[in-house]
Every structure is written in C-alpha cells, then in structure tokens.
Design brief:
five-stranded antiparallel β-sheet, about 5% helix
Length: about 260
Amino acid sequence: MVVSLTREHREDPKTEKPTPKSMPEYRHGNPDRYGKFIVSGDFAFYEYRFKITSETKFRMQEFWGFPKDFVKSNRNVLAAINGVYWNAAHKPEGALYSGKGYIGTETPEFNSRQPPIFGFFDKTRREPRYGGYLSVDLSGNEVRISETLHGNHSDYWLVVGTHPLLVMKGKIHPQAIDPHYNRTIKEPKAEKQVPYATYRSAIGIREIDQKTYVSFIVSMDRITMSDWAKKLKDAGFAGAINIDGGPVSQLATRDASG
C-alpha cells in the first residue's frame, strides 16, 4: 500500500523520465524543492510538504513493492510513502477509501466499513483497540486528522483509517503513549529490557498562514512511538497519524527537475 502525491496533467511521452530520490538512503539522498531535513536535538526526520491543488492530487492505492519502485514506475507521481499496516493474510488493515472505491480489508476483526469510529479487536490483548482517520474532502480543501469520521466514506475524496493517532489539535494523542505501542524488548546479549525503537513513518498536517499543508514524514533514526509523537508535536504539526514503519519505512520523491 502506498500513499502518493500525483500530477494531474500528462507529460510528453518523449520527455526524459526523472529519477526518484528515495529513502531510506536518507543521508545519501538530496531533498528536492518540496522536502527538507529537520533536526530536533539529536533526532532528525525528513519531511515532504505539499498543498493539495487542482494540479496535484493526494491518492492511495495498493502496490506490491516499495515507494521508490512506485515513483519510478509512475512518471506523474511526485512523492510516495508507505501506507497502512498489513495483516498475516497480506491484506491492508484499516478503513481505506479513495475516490475510486473502497479497498479496505475484509477481515471480521476490523470495523473499517462503519464510520464514525475506526477500531478493531486486538486478539493478543483480547480487547478493542482504536485508531483514527486521515481524511480529505471531495473538494480537496479540507484535510483532517481526527478520531471520528462524519458521514460516509463516499463523502470524501480519501479516507485512511489506521493506528495510532500521534498528534491531534497540536497535542500528543493518548494512543501514542499506549503501552501496546511502547513495549520493551530484551536487549541483545544483555539481561535487561529496553524500550522498543524502530524507524517510523507518518502523515501529518500543518497550518501555515491559514492554509493546510500535508506532509509525508519519515524518521532518520530508530525511535519509540511516544517519542515519535513528541518530536512531531514539537516540530509544529497540528495533526499526525502513524503508518507502517520499521524495515519498510520509506519515502521517495522526484527531483526538482521532474
């Protein structure tokens, strides 16, 4: 599953195909005109920020591969990031709806077809667990990260229901500090438990001069979920929702000449 920013106009097929700048080769990639590295203390992340316009659209679709492969094979794509989690049956987990229709998982433990709340039953903990929504309205003007979804999926251009919420209304969301996402693991060759840290991916929104910007974000270092949320809040995000990370955490962008 990938989430992408796409140009709506068609290019001349004879035009030379630009080369995507990919992650996680973070320190070797050159950020294009839309992206930048942000350093906060001893932690850094890469952000690709954009405004949805009539010429660029925010999309999501199922794709077997990495974001860099998606950008490379789709010349109108400006940037792509990995999407929601996948379950054991290799199906996307969550409420996934694009303007072309519903592409969510059909597994019974997910309540993904029934707004307003996105949730599922955690078989390991034997209790319900909740996430949130990233939504874009039909006009493309309103982008929200929220706990609930108003109306039906078809009332939106794009809906992503996933977990956990990291930041909402400029504050760290309680889901980000839930023990499920902040477990400890045994340190290799040591008899002690340490907080689990890995590479992270997220989609965030910023409010700048009364305009809403969407950001694809990837961490450049391993970090716990609670610290990931804190860093994004401190960096000024009004909202942020976590997406699949770890070994598959990747962001790919086209260079400025593309």
